[in-house]
UniProtKB/TrEMBL annotation:
<comment type="similarity">
    <text>Belongs to the ABC transporter superfamily.</text>
</comment>
<keyword id="KW-0067">ATP-binding</keyword>
<keyword id="KW-0813">Transport</keyword>
<dbReference type="InterPro" id="IPR003593">
    <property type="entry name" value="AAA+_ATPase"/>
</dbReference>
<dbReference type="InterPro" id="IPR003439">
    <property type="entry name" value="ABC_transporter-like_ATP-bd"/>
</dbReference>
<dbReference type="GO" id="GO:0005524">
    <property type="term" value="F:ATP binding"/>
</dbReference>
<protein>
    <submittedName>
        <fullName>ABC transporter ATP-binding protein</fullName>
    </submittedName>
</protein>
<feature type="domain" description="ABC transporter">
    <location>
        <begin position="2"/>
        <end position="230"/>
    </location>
</feature>
<dbReference type="Pfam" id="PF00005">
    <property type="entry name" value="ABC_tran"/>
</dbReference>
<dbReference type="InterPro" id="IPR027417">
    <property type="entry name" value="P-loop_NTPase"/>
</dbReference>
<keyword id="KW-0547">Nucleotide-binding</keyword>
<dbReference type="InterPro" id="IPR017871">
    <property type="entry name" value="ABC_transporter-like_CS"/>
</dbReference>
Length: 297
């Protein structure tokens, strides 16, 4: 549904993106992750046609954003950076005016969307009186009005309280269930991303370091908690055999290693193996391992 291929972008000679390629499949909820300055907003800006890449392109539904901007973006609803509204007008007037810029304002559709985002009671109030969470809901209503196939969301839960974050999560999951919506969003809230996303793309200093599901990520270097005696002897043996020592008692096996074979080899070397158990890592664990250890491809 959405592909970016070979994206390169520099600002004033300083690279922000280097050869970034990934895809978001139809009906997928996809997280775009990375530290501050990793290139997430630049990537979203290029997909939205607001930032011109030095090289590469973004395609939405097969249509190139760089070659056929209007047609590609017809399929997209977005919240990018802080949504700008007229504070002295009501939510409804804002929707009417902002929808008018890009096409026709369909009142019936707007009533439904406003209901869907839970703003019906306050839609006639001035936006200046809205809380941050209500502004986000209004931005979502605006993004959904043209009935897009893809939603692009830049830090959508930024500044929301826990209740607002939960509402947002349920809302996006329902959108996918009811309408098969494809969603790409960037976030620093890894627990949220873990609960919502089918797959993630992780950027580090403008380079792609991972694209795939969390399970694929876990399988790339499965981690085990071990109790081995004597540890110094075991550590040397493991390192010589390509096993990564994450901390005393925590190791990452190469993806093709059979743990039973490793245990047998340790025992064969006279090492006492009291524990050798797989660890289920959170997205936060995986993210930190990747962004600290792995250089981009
Ligand atoms: N308009 C611009 N002019 C100059 N440099 C820019 C511009 N936009 C982005 N950059 C630089 O490009 C790099 C990537 O920035 P980007 O905003 O894409 O990162 P990000 O991953 O979205 O970060 P954050 O999580 O802090 O929003 C950073 O070094 C940033 O300073």
């Amino acid at each position: 549904m959405l592909t970016v291929t070979g994206l390169c972008k520099s600002f004033g000679g300083k690279p922000a993106l280097h050869d970034v390629t990934f895809e978001v499949k139809r009906g997928e909820i996809h997280g775009l992750l990375g530290h501050n300055g990793a290139g997430k907003s630049t990537t979203l800006g290029i997909i939205l046609g607001m930032v011109e890449p030095d090289r590469g392109e973004a395609r939405i539904g097969g249509v190139s954003v760089q070659e056929n901007h209007a047609e590609a973006l017809r399929q997209v609803g977005a919240i990018f950076e802080s949504p700008a509204f007229y504070d002295y007008l009501s939510g409804w007037e804002n929707l009417r005016i902002l929808a008018g810029y890009s096409g026709r304002f369909d009142e019936k559709a707007a009533v439904e969307v406003v209901e869907r985002v839970g703003l019906t009671k306050r839609i006639r109030s001035k936006v200046g009186s809205y809380s941050h969470g209500m502004r986000q809901r209004l931005a979502l209503a605006q993004a959904l009005l043209p009935e897009p196939k893809v939603l692009l969301l830049d830090e959508p839960t930024d500044g929301l309280d826990p209740e607002g974050i939960k509402w947002f999560r349920d809302f996006v999951l329902d959108l996918r269930k009811d309408r098969g919506m494809t969603v790409l969003f960037n976030s620093h809230l890894l627990a949220e991303v873990e609960q919502m996303c089918d797959r993630v793309t992780i950027l580090r200093e403008g380079r792609l370091v991972h694209e795939g599901s969390l399970d694929e990520l876990r399988e790339e270097a499965p981690v085990y908690e071990v109790d081995l005696e004597p540890w110094g002897h075991a550590k040397t043996f493991l390192e010589l055999n390509g096993v990564q020592i994450l901390s005393p008692g925590r190791i990452a096996l190469p993806s093709d290693a059979d743990p039973a074979v490793v245990v047998a080899a340790l025992v064969g070397c006279g090492i006492r193996v009291s524990a050798f158990a797989p660890v289920r890592r959170s997205l936060e664990d995986l993210y930190l391992e990747i962004t600290m250890n792995r250089s981009g491809t």
